[in-house]
Amino acid sequence: xxxxxxxxxxxxxxxxxxxxxxxxxxxxxxxxxxxxxxxxxxxxxxxxxxxxxxxxxxxxxxxxxxxxxxxxxxxxxxxxxxxxxxxxxxxxxxxxxxxxxxxxxxxxxxxxxxxxxxxxxxxxxxxxxxxxxxxxxxxxxxxxxxxxxxxxxxxxxxxxxxxxxxxxxxxxxxxxxxxxxxxxxxxxxxxxxxxxxxxxxxxxxxxxxxxxxxxxxxxxxxxxxxxxxxxxxxxxxxxxxxxxxxxxxxxxxxxxxxxxxxxxxxxxxxxxxxxxxxxxxxxxxxxxxxxxxxxxxxxxxxxxxxxxxxxxxxxxxxxxxxxxxxxxxxxxxxxxxxxxxxxxxxxxxxxxxxxxxxxxxxxxxxxxxxxxxxxxxxxxxxxxxxxxxxxxxxxxxxxxxxxxxxxxxxxxxxxxxxxxxxxxxxxxxxxxxxxxxxxxxxxxxxxxxxxxxxxxxxxxxxxxxxxxxxxxxxxxxxxxxxxxxxxxxxxxxxxxxxxxxxxxxxxxxxxxxxxxxxxxxxxxxxx
Length: 527
Known about the structure:
Elements: E1 2-4, E2 10-15, E3 22-24, E4 45-47, H1 48-59, H2 67-74, E5 82-86, E6 92-95, E7 98-103, H3 109-118, E8 122-126, E9 133-137, H4 146-156, E10 161-166, E11 169-170, E12 172-173, H5 204-208, E13 218-223, E14 250-252, H6 284-292, E15 308-313, E16 321-322, H7 323-336, E17 339-342, E18 345-346, H8 350-362, E19 371-374, E20 393-399, E21 415-420, E22 428-431, E23 454-458, H9 460-478, H10 484-493, H11 518-526
Parallel strand pairs: 13-15, 13-17, 14-15, 17-19, 19-20, 20-21
Antiparallel strand pairs: 1-2, 2-5, 3-4, 5-6, 6-11, 7-9, 7-10, 8-9, 11-16, 12-18, 22-23
């Protein structure tokens, strides 16, 4: 069975039972967000019945039930919940009676109502960013499971519809890197470590002669939260210029807009062991430091230390995340930031596809907000993941301190370029969550410092992505008039060619256009 992408290409789905079917969870395969009240899952397996039940309680409107009735329903078996696996990625997707769809501009309301009635659907809620988009639901006794997928494919094929898809709650991958020492070689590589190749970096010092970044240029980190109170990040966090707005520092899109924690984008969920990705909100803070850490008191410095970070929380540790909310987080970020950084991969979602298109249209007053996406990490490497492979995304791979492609870096024709990360002699030194005994470094001097404020164990395409996004922020600081295509071309055209296999146009499936060079990119933008 299949659903249709925004480009009306088939996305193959496999129905899977929700009765005691285990799903492996490994260190290299983490899952979207977790509710604060939810217990930690077993490290080795996840029960699909439990997964479906928790997704239903967290995300799905139980047909209007409230209070004690809703609580009783939430504890019942997850009836009406469809569980699928996307064949291409192998990721689990869960849906309960809802379809997200967007009508074409100009379709009148009577026609919209008729289309919904024909498919046995009712309006659940309009999209807060796109007037033509909505979420519809099938009342009790209506379509669900495989029939809901079939109904969405039928809707997606209609002339009046831009896209339609089950309103999935899905798995998303975040990645971490092996432990390494703390030198920030990715900014300026002196070859101080045995086996390291001097000069294999992004030429940050030369770039900073042109600009260290403007405070008006904002990079959104869409992840599991950012420690906005971190002493090496606090001065670099975006603050809403409208002091009456509730989103003072960002938002948490994992929870609904009426949840009291929606306007708190900090890391929130931690489960022992606290230095592992599984069960812990420790990924986004490291990404933020790669972009704009201030270098306070000898700590890490970001590639664009003069710019600001917008914290957009979309994951709660490693539970499933709602595609609809991830897509809306992209739209929100595009309205408030200049550059978006997404260090994760997931299942193919037409809503997220359209959100990338919306970012190019809504962002920066019509110039577009470039969206940098991690290519993905696998050993051996696989094809570029979603959303990085979408044409509107800028797919970033990872290179090492020895000018090689990292052996985990996924690659293919969609790769724009690579940026330095782990996989060679050393990995990336960056900020870690400042909460005591939490983070990649729980207070070990050899892991990045006894105070636990930094980690030397970050890497993967997760680190390469914010590094490239930060260089884009430097470029926009030098020339704010550039549109999304212009930013991409400045970075691509100024890359250093590392490795081999480039064609006559100067690109490679493994390295894209090469390794990003911040100095040359800033110089080109200033001309």
